[in-house]
């Protein structure tokens, strides 16, 4: 197992480099880089220097397209020295290959630079926004498992019954509803839309959070997180329920189950003493991957609809503003997290069932 883990860890390096190369290359062909946006706002009289003071903090993390004052449509009528100074500030006076190599060298030293427009380091921004996204991802995953496992087991035991049929219909409908549409429906129904105002419309805590007692803070937190978590969970539990059901159905048909029943064991003992461990292998071992999936997918839309300041909104705003240090820094960090989680998922398989040997399978 040690050799397998070492090989997987070594594969992280070329995989991560490949992800960064592809995205960095694509950015070179995207018009409207940060300097173009700044020059356009200068032409329009906007105050573009807010947050750029002492600029260049993330210069080597930039990936912007072409350089040179002639490339910037917004630069007409502006002094070439001003544009050249901006290029130096953002690091765009260097060729793309040199910028990419400098960026990767900084990342290897855990130096992710500073946002172009926020006057904060990328790591500082990620740490600041992460609690919101972790709250959504963690609670959505836990609720999905809490609903899916008992429901999937009951559907497997009652396969083909009326209960199995109508719950499958509900699951399919829930899976087909887009998360953002369900989120809007929840807002209209329960957050002061056209019907009831039971839950707050935005934010993760109330304005008087600091004045609340310990238990009141817990209640306030769950009061705010309820609708976003439900909206994030609506499609996740459908997949897990069907996965649980199919896993149990596969195990129920195996010979060891018939042998256990022939020995006179109760149905409950057969189900939870013999079938459960084998059937739940793929479900439990996939927990890290499911959490990361919920953590990353859909967080942008849910956070935007419920006005939650998390990583989803951070990434969206960075993409719109062409804040390359934030874009590439978060891409590197979360790409690395995703690859490590893949290894953790394999380790979970071995932990749940020590009989699994990935080295022998690879051989």
Précis, in short:
Helices cover 68% and strands 0% of the residues. The protein is built from 17 helices and no strands. The longest helix has 36 residues, at 122-157.
Spell out the blueprint of helices and strands.
Elements: H1 2-27, H2 34-43, H3 80-90, H4 96-108, H5 122-157, H6 162-176, H7 179-190, H8 214-233, H9 236-252, H10 255-262, H11 267-279, H12 281-285, H13 287-296, H14 299-305, H15 311-321, H16 324-352, H17 358-362
Helix pairs in contact: 1-16, 5-8, 5-9, 5-13, 5-16, 6-9, 7-8, 9-11, 10-11, 13-16, 14-15, 15-16
Characterise this structure.
This protein has 363 residues and is mainly alpha-helical. It contains 17 helices and no strands. The chain has helices at 2-27, 34-43, 80-90, 96-108, 122-157, 162-176, 179-190, 214-233, 236-252, 255-262, 267-279, 281-285, 287-296, 299-305, 311-321, 324-352, 358-362.
């Amino acid at each position: 197992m040690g050799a397998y883990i070492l090989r997987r860890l070594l594969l992280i390096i070329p995989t991560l480099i490949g992800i960064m190369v592809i995205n960095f290359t694509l950015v070179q062909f995207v018009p409207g880089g940060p300097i173009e946006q700044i020059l356009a706002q200068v032409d329009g009289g906007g105050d573009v220097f807010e947050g750029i003071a002492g600029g260049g903090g993330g210069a080597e993390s930039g990936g912007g397209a072409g350089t040179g004052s002639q490339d910037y449509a917004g630069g007409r009528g502006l002094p070439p020295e001003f544009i050249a100074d901006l290029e130096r500030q953002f690091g765009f006076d260097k060729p793309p290959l040199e910028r990419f190599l400098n960026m990767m060298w900084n990342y290897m030293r855990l130096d992710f630079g500073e946002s172009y427009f926020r006057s904060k380091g990328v790591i500082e921004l990620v740490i600041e926004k992460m609690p919101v996204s972790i709250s959504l991802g963690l609670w959505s995953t836990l609720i999905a498992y809490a609903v899916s496992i008992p429901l999937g087991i009951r559907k497997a035991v009652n396969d083909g019954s009326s209960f199995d049929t109508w719950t499958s219909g509900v699951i399919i409908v829930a899976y087909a509803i887009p998360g953002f549409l369900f989120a809007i429906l929840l807002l209209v129904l329960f957050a002061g839309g056209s019907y009831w105002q039971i839950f707050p419309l935005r934010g993760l805590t109330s304005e008087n959070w600091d004045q609340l007692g310990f238990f009141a803070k817990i209640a306030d937190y769950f009061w705010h997180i309820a609708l976003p978590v439900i909206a994030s969970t609506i499609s996740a539990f459908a997949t897990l329920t069907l996965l649980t059901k199919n896993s149990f159905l596969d195990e129920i048909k195996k010979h060891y189950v018939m042998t256990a029943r022939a020995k006179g064991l109760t149905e409950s003992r057969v189900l939870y003493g013999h079938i459960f461990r084998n059937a739940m292998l793929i479900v439990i071992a996939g927990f890290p991957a499911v959490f990361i999936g919920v953590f990353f997918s859909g967080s942008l839309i849910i956070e935007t609809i419920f006005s939650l300041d998390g990583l989803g909104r951070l990434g969206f705003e960075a993409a719109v503003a062409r804040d390359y240090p934030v874009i590439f820094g978060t891409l590197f960090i979360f790409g690395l997290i995703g690859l490590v989680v893949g290894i953790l998922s394999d380790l979970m398989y071995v932990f749940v069932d020590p009989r699994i040997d990935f080295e022998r399978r690879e051989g």
